[in-house]
Amino acid sequence: MLQSTGKTIYSTVAQVCGALTNIVMDPIMIYGLLGFPRLGVKGAAYATVLGQAVSFIIAIVLQITRNREISISLKYWKPNLKIIGGIYSIGVSAIIMQALMSFMTYGVNIIFGRVSASAVTAYGIFYKIQQFVYFAGFGLRDSITPLVSYNYGKGSCKRVREGVKWGMIDTTVVMIIGVVILELFAHPLAQIFGLTAGTEHLCVLAMRIIATGFIFAGINIASQGVFQALMSGNSSLIVSFLRLLVIPLPLAYAFTFLNKATDVMWWAFPIGEAVAAVAAVLLLKRIYRLKVEPMKDWK
Description:
Layout: H1 8-31, H2 41-66, H3 81-113, H4 117-154, H5 157-191, H6 197-210, H7 214-229, H8 233-246, H9 248-255, H10 261-264, H11 268-292
């Protein structure tokens, strides 16, 4: 609700406060600092829940006190199946995409476990690091969706084209910056975690190889925002399945049978992103032809 009314700074404040709470409370609750009991893995779980709770409370308070454009009066809470169906017809692709990321991680852990525990650890660390880059892309995607959808509803073909064009460019540029950072600082980032020499080598290798796929990931992430804006959730799902399951998991599994599996299996991820990017561009052209080009631009 905060994002839909242009108050993105408040939604950002809520999310950042929750994330910082999680980061600060992790070591405190894991190791029993400042009088807290030593909880180990349970502490990490509790810290995550606490961070979510803080984010929730701040978001609700900001919504009530700062967002006068949307009323949360109970009289508006009467369920409307048509509206609910419309929400899910657009949002289900994003829901499934988030679920697919978890399934992919689970599948990768099983596949890489066939090679070595160090490979699983290296991928787990890289996954956390890459989230910083992906979150930037996701933020731009969430900006593309309302901008394109508003102008699509208005019937402004020119503005839709501009939104798609600059959304794709900006997201790709941000992801390229992420590639440069990981390529330059892969070794220092891996050293933060105090890994063994073998695991650190795999972590650096994972960062430098998988990061090359971020360029294609930028296209995929931006196009998914466009698909959702143009009421084409199925196209977004196709891209998600290709980049997260259909391509990378079978490839990663096949690469584990090679002699130098630990040097090669990381390429499954950029290949998956590249194939999905080709599909995304083709689907985007189709949607342009069917939905954007027929629009009569309002002057």
